[in-house]
Amino acid sequence: MSTQGSWSIPEFTAGDRFRKARELTGQTQREFASTLGVDKNTIGAYETGATTRHRKIVVNAWALATGVPTEWLLYGVVPQSPDDPGHEGSGPLVLNVTRTAEVVELSTRLASAA
């Protein structure tokens, strides 16, 4: 956990973020695996951090199924809105899911659930 001023900010691994995003859907690992069209072991591997080579297609499917941006899943970064000054566009893994207000609300909900 990092501390900035009077704030304590939990540090999430990529596995934590994948798990928290799936949990927002209310699906079990088995149900979510079926939704994505992958094996349950793949879901478990992503959520436990057993895999660090995240396949682009799985990350994109995870983002689509949960409504969570790929940047947040992979790096814990809340993407900028295209309307924000300084927005440089999307990276190669990024879907057009830059709903900043929703992402900030999600991050707040996830931090309070930890």
Strand order of the largest sheet: 1-2
Distance between the termini: 11 Å
**CATH level-4 homologous superfamily:** lambda repressor-like DNA-binding domains
And the CATH topology?
Answer: 434 Repressor (Amino-terminal Domain)
- Tell me the β content: 5-15%
Layout of strands and helices, then pairs:
Blueprint (H helix, E strand, L loop, with lengths): L1 E3 L2 E3 L4 H12 L3 H8 L3 H9 L7 H11 L3 H6 L24 H14 L1
Antiparallel strand pairs: 1-2
Helix pairs in contact: 1-3, 1-4, 2-3
Q: Explain this structure to me?
A:
This protein is mainly α. The protein is 53% helix and 5% strand. It has 6 helices and 2 strands; from the N terminus they run E-E-H-H-H-H-H-H. Strands 1-2 form a two-stranded antiparallel sheet. It starts with a strand and ends with a helix.
Please name the defining characteristics of this protein.
single chain; 114 residues; 434 Repressor (Amino-terminal Domain); 6 helices; 53% helix
In short:
The chain has 114 residues and is mostly helical. 53% of the residues lie in helices and 5% in strands. The protein starts with a strand and ends with a helix.
